[in-house]
Write the structure tokens for this entry.
Amino acid sequence: MNYLRELEDNSIYIIREAYAQFRDVAMLWSIGKDSTTLLWLIRKTFFGKIPFPVIHIDTTYKFKEIYEFRDRYAKEWHLNLSVIKNEEAFKKGVNPEKSKFQCCTELKTNALKEEISRRHFRALYLAIRRDEHGVRAKERIFSPRDEDFEWDYKNQPPELWDQYKTKAKDEEHLRIHPLLGWREIDVWEYIRMENIPIVSLYFAKGGKRYRSIGCQCCCNPIDSDADTIDKIIEELKTSKISERSGRAQDKESAYTMQKLRSLGYM
Amino acid sequence: MQNSNLKFVIVGHVDHGKSTLIGRLLYDTNSLPLDKIEEIKKTSGDLGRETEFAYLVDHLEEERKQGITIDTTQVFFRTDKRGYVIIDAPGHIEFVKNMITGASQAEAAILIIDAKEGIKEQTKRHAYILSLLGLSQVTVVLNKMDLVDFREEVFNKIKKDIEEFFVSINIKPVFYIPVCAISGQNIAKRPLNMAWYKGPTFLESLDKLKNKESLQNKPLVFPIQDVYKFDDKRIAVGRIEAGVIKRGQVIKVLPSCQITKVKSIEKYPGQIDKACAGESIGIVTEDPLFINRGDIIFEPQNGPIVTDNFKANIFWISRKEFKKDERIIIRCSTQETSCKLETIEKRINSATLEIIEQDADILQNLEVGEVVVKTKKPIIIKAFNDVPALGRFVFVQHENICAGGIIANPN
């Protein structure tokens, strides 16, 4: 399919631009379908040998299928895998019961902050897409974060044609978004075309499946009988509900996602 | 076989209705998930407003509360013919650089004009920027026709005025379409109150737009992004910007002028015999050459222009004023070098096209300059209409892109 190859070629171009400019980079892998697709693309980009770490932020609330999938493919694909956790937050008893906003910030965002400052990564590859959430739709392909991890969405740098913000002050890191222009259905059709392995939670069992995956406690399955990729794609084409409708942190208030992201969330 | 999506940008003066037009288009083509419609109804209600279709693109809290688009966004929808990516661009003068970021990704543009307010400053500035970005496929939409009682004379008058402006910037719009975005007239459905209008609806006009031209039939242009070393192989990687490359082909690497053959074309998980414009690949050469990022590969008989001196039209998008003789960095495809503006032949107001000064010493935010660029190292360029990737460039200063430019016909 011409169109998917075009998306693939352009994403590989972006991945190569970022690596050429920054070298000290890493990729965030949440083990979901988008970041696994990104991981697949990055493997293609570097001819099977990814020359930098792949980071999994572990909140410990993830499904067991996620941990199994992660360990299997980290081995099979010879990944330089780093699993990071915010140990202090666990000791303090941070959990989603009190506030999802606080829990996401502490367990995900702050865990990442510590790791970046420890290892001095200049850029991070993330698999976010514009059509996942209106606030992500406002992103740039190369998006700067300052030393406090803040996203200055009111004053983003211009990106012209295929030229991106490639110089940064020492304290900044950049978020690189090679899948920004891919839609949910493009990701699934690419997964089908390439036979990319995907965690089993996306496939229906007992009348339910997950359309979007996060931590076990904050993530709701949808009613579905789609237990193969073909059926998932069919279901998507006729769906009238958006992808993240089962994700609790988006619901705390209309602007939770914006606030989370301005503090450095994904 | 799926056609390529068509990307188009919607531009125009603030409050002329860009975001509402998009929201309406998505709503009328059933492109919206139910929970999104519920969400905007609720948010509009909470803010004490009628259902704001603009909330489908204005997602930032500040955007909704102030009723204004700050940054560009992209949304998707389909008709039977193909998929579309709509790029919404802010109309406020404060956010021109965000509008340019959005517009630079488009293959076509929709210029929206409020029929009651008529042509305003950003209308003209945006139209001019479209021509500076090389976008020539433009449709003009006259919105809020309800506010002028759907009168044909109003439509014709504005059409005539904007047509004159377009002639002066060398663009010939493909369609002029009267609509009322808020009530949906002439967007997806034929207008009830404009029987005098015989042209296509907005949606029909979109289906008539052309996708961008393939550059496969041109001579080879393959700029190098990087070189990867694996096992014993050195793979030079990049994206082919024009033409075709084949295994065994003789190639010339510029600017060093080294000649060699393509030993293999690498595209994981294996190797391929041939690759075309648009493909991201790697190549291994017969001879162990020293290839770097910024080198460009051609066929030996093609001599592109290698120069350190050329004319260009640039638009300055940094708030910091530029003084001639300041050194800046130029990036043209993967080439990068330091440069300066030898002459600023004309300094132009981008909203009125008025020449502020000839032989100027400065350029300010939102101004256009007709300039002569002098680069420290020679670079390879081509005419923009020939190979766009080598006919356009950006200037970088203080870690950010501060201007974009199109090379004036280098021949």
The first helix of chain A runs from residue 2 to 22. The CA atoms of residues 37 and 85 of chain A lie 23 Å apart. Chain A has two domains: 2-183+252-262, 199-251. Chain A touches chain B through 54 residues (CB under 8 Å).
